[in-house]
Each structure stands twice: as structure tokens, then as C-alpha cells.
Amino acid sequence: MTRAFDGDTLVFATHNKGKLEEMEHLLTPFGVKVVGAAEMDLPEPEETEDTFVGNARIKAHAAAKATGLPCLSDDSGITIDALNGAPGVYTADWAETGNGRDFVMAMTRAHNELEAINAAHPRLAQFRSTLVVAWPDGHDEVFEGVAPGHLTWPMRGDQGFGYDPMFVPEGHDITFAEMDRWEKNKISHRALAVQKFVKGCFGG
Ligand code: IMP
Predict the structure, then answer these.
(1) Its catalytic activity (predicted)?
(2) CA 31 to centroid of chain Cα atoms
(3) Ligand 1 centre from 131 Cα, in Å?
(4) Among 161, 176, 184, which is best to mutate for testing ligand 1, by the most ligand atoms less than 8 A from CB?
(5) pTM for this one?
(6) In this structure, CATH architecture of domain 9-201
(7) Where are the domains of the chain?
(8) Residues 121, 44 contacting (CB under 8 angstroms)
């Protein structure tokens, strides 16, 4: 039996502004106020696991311990079929410059690696989101969402964040970065995981 969430405020253990805005938009209809990690002054724990769920657990439990409140985390990324699932859990690392994150650099790397092996089109990929809700007593619940699609080049659009400008979701011909966030939030990996979270923890 999934544990119910009965509060009106949920700490979202992320420092990623794009993720935070999406989560606020996704959970506001359920009367939940979403508070980000920066607002709670939470540290960013090191993500030492090699699975999405492992890293999501680290973030959610660290935040629940620090705040004494139920905390939500998201570990997400993109898996590219022709690159055997890379960058996967290392999606954010591909953007690391040593002095902040550069997603144009990360997307260019993905494109260059596909070109180097002359990967066939469509270049199938999936955005994946694993949400973990952790309570201060150590209990947690896990919800996963996958958005299938393909990669396009050159990058298109200026909405969203991260790898959105090169990802065309299945059934569409525009990238996530060309969609407004309402449209993206109906079909994204994070939206699908949130739907499961809402069903499991809000009974809705
Ligand atoms: P982490 O979950 O913070 O370890 O990093 C996930 C990385 O995946 C982010 O830095 C983004 O670059 C990428 N990512 C996750 N979700 C999305 C999305 O909805 N659009 C574009 N990029 C995403």
C-alpha cells in the first residue's frame, strides 16, 4: 500500500530551476505548494549511485533528514539507443564545464557521438524521470515516467531546459523546446511520473 501524502507543502529537493518550475506547474492543481531546495537552504548531496532510483533516493532522504518534512526528488536524464543508453545517469555530467553547466556543449557531444558512428535515423531516445518521496522516518515511494522520442539536429526552440532543443517527443514534429510548458507538461517523463505519484499518494 502506497503511503499517502497529506501535507499542503512539499519540499522538492532540486536546485534545477527548470525542474522546479515544471513541478510547481504540475502539483499546483492538487493544492500542493512546492518549495525548492534553494529556498530551504538545502545542500546538494553527491550523486554517487549508478541508477536513477539510487540517486533520487540519496537526494530525497538527505532532504527529509535535513528538514524533518516529506521531500520529493527527481533524478532524470536522457538515454540514447544508438549510444547504448548513454548519457543516462550521466546526463547532467555531460554538461559540466568545471565552471557551471553548458547544455549546448552536452547536446553537441551527443550529436557528434551519433555522427561518429553514423547512427541510423530516427535516432531514438527516451527522457526518463524517477521521482522519490521520502519521509523523515526513512520510508519512501518510487514513481517512474518515460517519454519516448528521437533526436534532431540542429537544436530548435528556446523553451524548457537541458536537452529539450534536440528532443522530438513521439507523435510530434516539434522539439520539447518549441512547445510551451503546458504542452510539454502533458506528455513529459516528469509529468508521467507525477501522475503516478498523485495517483499513489493523493489517491487522485
Ligand atoms: P539530475 O537529475 O539533476 O542528475 O540531472 C538530470 C539532467 O537531465 C538535467 O541536468 C537535464 O539536463 C536533463 N533533463 C532532465 N529532464 C529534462 C527535461 O525535461 N528536459 C531536458 N533535459 C532534461
Answers:
(1) ITP + H2O = IMP + diphosphate + H(+); XTP + H2O = XMP + diphosphate + H(+); dITP + H2O = dIMP + diphosphate + H(+)
(2) 22
(3) 13
(4) 161
(5) 0.94
(6) Alpha-Beta Complex (3.90)
(7) 9-201
(8) no
Q: Chunked in runs of 10, what are the mean pLDDT values of the chain (204 residues)? A: 87 94 91 92 92 97 95 97 98 96 98 98 98 97 98 97 97 97 92 94 76
Please indicate whether residue 130, judged by its CB atom, sits closer than 6 Å to ligand 1. no
**Over 94-128, what HEC string results?**
HHECCCCECHHHHHHHHHHHHHHCCCCCCEEEEEE
- Would you state the cell numbers that stand for residue 160, as one nine-digit string? 524548457
- Atom index in ligand 1 nearest the CA of residue 89 equals 4
Q: Grid coordinates 524517477 are at which residue?
A: 130
Strand partners, 111: none
Q: How far is the CA of 91 from the centre of ligand 1 (A)?
A: 7
Residue 178: count of CB within 10 angstroms of its CB: 18
Does the C-beta of 88 come closer than 6 Å to ligand 1?
Answer: no
Please tell me whether residue 164 adopts helix, strand or coil conformation: helix
